[in-house]
Specification:
homodimer; about 425 residues; alpha/beta; Rossmann fold; 6-stranded parallel sheet; 16 helices; about 15% strand; Hstdl_DH (chains A, B); histidinol dehydrogenase activity (chains A, B); zinc (chains A, B); metal-binding (chains A, B); Histidinol_DH_CS (chains A, B)
């Protein structure tokens, strides 16, 4: 049963949320990943095929998904679901198109022009987990922002099932979202292939997408050689209720988080101790109908809690301390409180926005910072698929005015050649 | 002597630039950093003081720089240099203020509002190297963007000299740039203190700034627990000249890069083999006058080169392959070529913009991606000190329309509780 904690003190909250910060690296996972990456680096394609055989149970003769496989997936797929997929893609596209950024240029003085350009990454790799469930929503959430950014090549890697196939929903989502090449590879070995390249998979510039602890650790280890989006931990939700919400709705939303995995964290903060007990009871009732009830029950018991606090400002202060991945503001006038939220990945305003709406359909991204990292990481966005260059233009006259200051600064830092590169332009007028 | 390579083939270029990509982690450095970080994590303040004694040669009784120390630095500092520092700070502020971003919100349908907020990081830590030279420009380039972003707390760490002091220029720059607290700590131990916190240094949300291989590795290891800007390698410049530039100017600019360290890389690409030889000769002449000539000579010989190519498009193609940290376009009509530059950190247009102008005065940032990482990393900017949150608001009517699609998608992914959190809102109208 989910614990209810009334009027938690600072130490209780500290203990609660510091535990959700990333734990120190797990040595066994880190060593195992390091070995896999080393093998991919050294033996490329052959190591990748061999790990795929060992871990996914299939010896592939070809890593890349063919055009025929994609067409056959599109034929197989349920037309109602295809319609939902298209609606979702359209909404995600609409939201992310607002994230497109422009460069700028301006003149801070006569003969001077400064500016910044925004350019897309050339080639990105999206990782899509396989395993027990296929997540076509992940494909849309990662590939659409890359497409909007203008990336020329959008690769996707996802582990094959033991028959060597990829789920048709995943392939359909990839086609809809603009993925250019799809590879059957999973785990740390897929991350290695993206980072180092193999005979059939060219190395990419950035790797995005969720994954298990091995995938997360592999991304951490290749960071620097390539860019990565973020290091994802277990998913989490914080719901704030002022007491005017349906206990059944709140319980359903907590369960939607808890069913992800046993380490998922579902927290409710409310100003009503009566509501707290009602939600606790409704959780028990609703749990009984869930196929994944064992997972959800473990998550609620070990990682979940209901906190009763004095007032909404206290609840919001705790939210900023937790910096939750998902935040539902189930309160009257939710927009009144939005400016007070300093740290949260995705915010759901009011009582008619369950997190699941954002997971699938609303349009904002569902790849979000977890474990308190919303303090410094952002939701996945078009920004992840572009980078900037800055530029400087000075006319000769403008530069000659600046040269003495440049030289003075350089010499103060002990860099004589820097100073000379400025002053030499004063000494001689070269045409 | 710098090598001249005429009409390099693809294999030569590949070998040249793949070597500049980040090398696999150095095991000795990585283990040593891992030990230091572990000690800081476990023993905090005491470990930090002890490493400072061991590595910087001074036992400090207090890590934080006092107000008196800062005031005394401001009294000591040369007034001409203070003026240069102020000019530089003003130009950096002017450029970076153009990077401030707004959120957005829009309605994609009746009863729906979606948006994105941009919020500053609460507390950031800037690392400023010490050692042989003090770099006040680094302080300005890191702290000013953080200040413009709106960070409440801007910490700085820099190693003390053996007498326990910090250079007055560094302290003056910190005061000018808006640094809120300054700590005497260097190396991997300073990065550990920022990441984990100690008794006197609260943990920060993001660490930025350059450093040696130990600092870079420490940043890599704490990434995820905190954010970092990028992992910096040796500095580099690529100059493209169409043959109409002064060989002495080009040589001076190459030397300003080469004097940084022996691993720095200075490359010139030109369409004129006559110019190539003139620059080669001028380098030898100018080297003789440089205090750091030994370093510069080693850098030019081992890591530098002059490439002669057929035409400007060939030069630009090589630039995009190298993705240089600094790119000087010493050509007529440089703006004609700007749109063709896909990957470069900072671009200097025309023959009157030596890189040193950008290092100190022009305004664009000098903390730039190196070793080919300009393919995916950006120059340090205000973006580094903010993060975003996305939000979703649906009225009840709008949500009830969307609910079936949400549930269909969730069930296709095998997440029943997600589906129920949508459908339960259809079943009962709660007020």
């Amino acid at each position: 049963m989910i614990p209810v904690i009334s009027y938690p003190d600072a130490a209780t909250l500290d203990a609660l949320f510091s535990a959700s910060r990333l734990s120190p690296e797990n040595r066994a996972i880190s060593d195992s990943v390091s070995r896999i990456l080393g093998d991919i680096r050294q033996s490329g394609e052959e190591a990748l095929l061999s790990y795929t055989e060992q871990l996914d149970g299939v010896r592939l003769s070809r890593l890349e998904v063919t055009e025929e496989e994609i067409n056959s997936a599109l034929d197989q797929i349920d037309s109602d679901f295809l319609q939902v997929l298209k609606t979702s893609a359209a909404q995600i596209r609409s939201f992310h198109s607002h994230q497109k950024r422009n460069g700028f240029s301006f003149s801070p003085g006569k003969g001077i022009l400064l500016g910044q350009m925004v350019t897309p990454l050339d080639r990105v790799g999206i990782y899509v987990p396989g395993g027990t469930a296929a997540y076509p929503s992940t494909v849309l959430m990662n590939a659409i922002p890359a497409k909007i950014a203008g990336c020329r090549e959008i690769f996707m890697a996802t582990p094959p099932s033991p028959n060597g196939q990829i789920s048709p929903e995943i392939l359909a989502a990839a086609r809809l979202a603009g993925v250019t090449r799809i590879f059957k590879a999973g785990g740390a070995q897929a991350i290695g292939a993206f980072a180092y390249g193999t005979a059939s998979i060219p190395a990419v510039d950035k790797i995005t997408g969720p994954g298990n602890a091995y995938v997360a650790e592999a991304k951490r280890q290749v960071f620097g050689l390539v860019a990565i989006d973020m290091i994802a931990g277990p998913s989490e939700i914080l719901i704030i209720s002022d007491g005017h919400s349906s206990p059944r709705h709140l319980a359903a939303d907590l369960l939607s988080q808890a069913e992800h995995d046993k380490m998922a964290r579902a927290v409710l903060i409310t100003t009503s101790s009566q509501l707290a007990l009602q939600v606790q009871q409704s959780l028990e009732e609703q749990l009984l109908c869930l196929p994944r009830q064992e997972i959800a029950r473990a998550s609620l018991k070990q990682r979940g809690c209901i906190l009763v606090v004095n007032d909404l400002p206290a609840a919001i202060q705790i939210a900023n301390q937790m910096a939750p991945e998902h935040l539902e503001l189930c309160v009257d006038s939710p927009f009144d409180h939005l400016p007070d939220i300093r740290h949260a990945g995705s915010i759901f305003l009011g009582c008619h926005c369950p997190e699941a709406l954002g997971d699938y359909l609303a349009g904002p991204n569902h790849t979000l910072p977890t474990g308190g990292t919303a303090r410094f990481f952002s939701p996945l966005s078009v920004d992840d698929f572009v980078k900037t260059s800055q530029y400087t233009y000075y006319t000769r006259e403008a530069f000659l005015q600046a040269a003495p200051s440049v030289a003075a600064f350089a010499r103060k830092e002990g860099l004589e050649a820097h100073g000379r590169s400025a002053l030499i332009r004063k000494e001689e007028a070269y045409e």
